[in-house]
């Protein structure tokens, strides 16, 4: 066993090399900072690395298969829905198909002349001589019909108040000339008293003009003024309530024939611009189911 001397000259004995290790149950423990085997090599970040195998598991395969089946089912359902909503019309063969070729449609003769305007729209004598055209006749008929509808239509819900009539009771004033408006306020039964107003309110009457048609009878020149007589025929439809509140709706019938009662309104028109309606005719006077008043000496 080797020995050594310290600085005092004393001799100390060094243990053998084998005694440098401490044992426990004959299992030696190495002193700290002892080399432990060869270190693992460090890979460069540029070198490719081998990835582990990522093969789908059986559960993942089953999940993908279910999604595919679900997608096909949805596509099939959408296709069936589109066919139901937008069916495709297929040609259906007929058993009795004609065996002969179709004959061409007969075309009108190119030399045939179109009917005259007087055949489509009858006008009285002197209409063209007065400088009027078929469009003037259409305008006169339109004004006469609009006036009759405004005059004859009634609605208890749109009639103004008892002290001041309005609504359907005064709608016809828009078609009247200034002089006719004065006569309307003093002579029309819608304005002179409350008899008609009370009747309409008590019966809750709603009255409408049906099937109006017109015919221009005569025209007359009086100085610079031009007048036209227009006859408007029509029927009336009424809706009213009885004492129990139940509504009765019907066409007004002729008490003798029990057929729709055809009524006539004679309308005298004056050629001139109506600033209220934009038409070229104004109503000067009118009469229901009676000959026109002798305001003008119409031959």
From TrEMBL:
It comes from the Bacteria. The chain crosses the membrane at residues 69-89. Residues 1-20 have a biased composition (Basic and acidic residues). Keywords: Membrane, Transmembrane, Transmembrane helix. Residues 102-122 have a biased composition (Low complexity). Residues 1-60, 97-123 are annotated as: Disordered. This is Uncharacterized protein. It comes from Thermosporothrix hazakensis.
């Amino acid at each position: 066993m080797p020995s050594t001397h310290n600085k005092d000259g004393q001799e100390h004995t060094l243990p053998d090399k084998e005694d440098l290790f401490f044992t426990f149950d004959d299992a030696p423990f190495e002193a700290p900072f002892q080399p432990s085997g060869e270190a693992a090599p460090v890979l460069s970040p540029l070198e490719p690395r081998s990835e582990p195998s990522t093969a789908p598991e059986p559960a993942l395969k089953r999940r993908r298969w279910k999604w595919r089946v679900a997608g096909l089912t949805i596509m099939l359902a959408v296709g069936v829905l589109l066919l139901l909503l937008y069916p495709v019309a297929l040609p259906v063969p007929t058993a009795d198909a004609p065996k002969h070729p179709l004959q061409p449609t007969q075309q009108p003769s190119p030399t045939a002349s179109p009917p005259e305007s007087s055949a489509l729209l009858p006008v009285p004598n002197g209409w063209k001589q007065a400088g009027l055209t078929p469009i003037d006749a259409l305008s006169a008929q339109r004004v006469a019909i609009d006036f009759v509808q405004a005059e004859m239509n009634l609605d208890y819900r749109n009639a103004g108040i008892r002290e001041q009539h309005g609504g359907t009771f005064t709608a016809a004033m828009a078609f009247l000339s200034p002089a006719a408006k004065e006569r309307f306020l003093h002579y029309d039964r819608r304005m002179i008293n409350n008899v008609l107003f009370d009747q309409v309110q008590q019966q809750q009457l709603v009255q409408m003009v049906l099937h109006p048609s017109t015919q221009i009878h005569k025209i007359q020149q009086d100085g610079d003024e031009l007048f036209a007589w227009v006859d408007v025929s029509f029927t009336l439809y009424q809706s009213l309530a009885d004492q129990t509140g139940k509504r009765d709706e019907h066409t007004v019938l002729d008490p003798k024939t029990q057929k729709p009662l055809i009524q006539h309104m004679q309308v005298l028109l004056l050629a001139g611009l109506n600033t209220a309606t934009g038409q070229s005719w104004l109503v000067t006077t009118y009469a229901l189911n009676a000959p026109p008043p002798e305001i003008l000496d119409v031959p």
